[in-house]
Design a protein that fits this description.
By secondary structure, the chain is α/β, with parallel strands linked by helices. The protein has 2 domains: 88 residues, no CATH class; 148 residues, 3-Layer(aba) Sandwich (Rossmann fold). Helix content is 48%, strand content 10%. The protein is built from 11 helices and 6 strands. Helix 2 packs parallel to helix 3 and helix 6 packs across helix 11.
């Protein structure tokens, strides 16, 4: 639970729970616990969960107000204060008190930075799936790969979390015919990064979208993946196999490999 969006505490909490792979967790996020009324409601949710399951829930909190913290702490014995764990040692290290302000992580602290993120997101949406190729040169990175290899979600993640203008271009049989980069991609070659995927997984993904026709057949997927990887190697384009890699890891790898900031 959080006194703002809950994004930070949800991410930290889920990361901690991954260390217990043999236990199945049911999670619920309670954002905007900003006053005593909201805290009492959250406390009621905790008590109801305990009554239903017969065990006290694990409560991960980034609440900053002492009153709401006390209400939640009184409702359950397992409350993990993710901010409190680090704030006091940080105050000692920095020789100053923290602001104890709620929601600074996801608030609009810097209008310029926020607007840059919005511009990046708009750019990525406008340049999804090769829809617009006129100004690819303005991109920070251009992802290339066969259809359904993870280009779109990765571009959106790069825009949202890194404020990067990320475009993507789908490689098709027409592009493979020449054995060279398509003209739009050749013009922005230093910004290219390739995504590939195991054909069997690609076939399963495509089958969910379009089960009929050759588009999702394993033969078609194998052929496209082989040609795409051959093109990346011939043109010395860095690329990544996305089969077992999360969107977060794909984005971080691209940022690292391309030296992006």
């Amino acid at each position: 639970m959080s006194d703002r969006t809950g994004i930070t505490v949800e991410t930290l909490g889920q990361s901690l729970l991954t260390q217990f792979p043999d236990i199945e967790f049911v999670t619920r996020t309670l954002p905007f616990v900003t006053n005593q009324v909201a805290a009492q409601h959250a406390a009621d949710v905790i008590r109801a969960a305990r009554a239903e399951d017969g065990v006290p829930p694990l409560v991960f909190s980034t609440l900053t107000d002492p009153t709401t913290q006390y209400i939640i702490g009184s409702a359950n014995e397992y409350v993990f204060d993710l901010f409190g764990t680090f704030i006091e040692p940080l105050e000692d290290a920095l020789g100053t008190e923290s602001s104890h302000t709620a929601g600074r992580m996801h608030g609009i602290r810097d209008v310029t930075v926020y607007e840059r993120r919005l511009h990046a997101l708009n750019y990525s949406l406008a340049h999804d799936d090769g829809v617009s190729i006129r100004d690819l040169g303005e991109a920070d990175v251009v992802l290339a790969g066969v259809s359904r290899s993870g280009k779109t979600p990765t571009c959106l993640y790069l825009a949202m979390h890194y404020s990067l203008r990320a475009a993507n271009y789908p490689l098709t049989d027409d592009d493979f015919a020449t054995g060279k980069l398509p003209p739009p991609l050749a013009k922005c070659r230093p910004k290219l990064y390739g995504l590939t995927i195991v054909p069997e997984q690609l076939s399963r993904i495509r089958h969910e979208r379009r089960p009929h026709g050759i588009y999702s057949t394993i033969a078609q997927c194998r052929a496209e993946v082989a040609k795409a990887e051959a093109l990346f190697k011939a043109e010395n384009i860095p690329y990544l196999d996305t089969t077992t890699v999360s969107i977060e890891e794909i984005a971080s790898t691209i940022v690292r490999d391309m030296g992006l900031r």
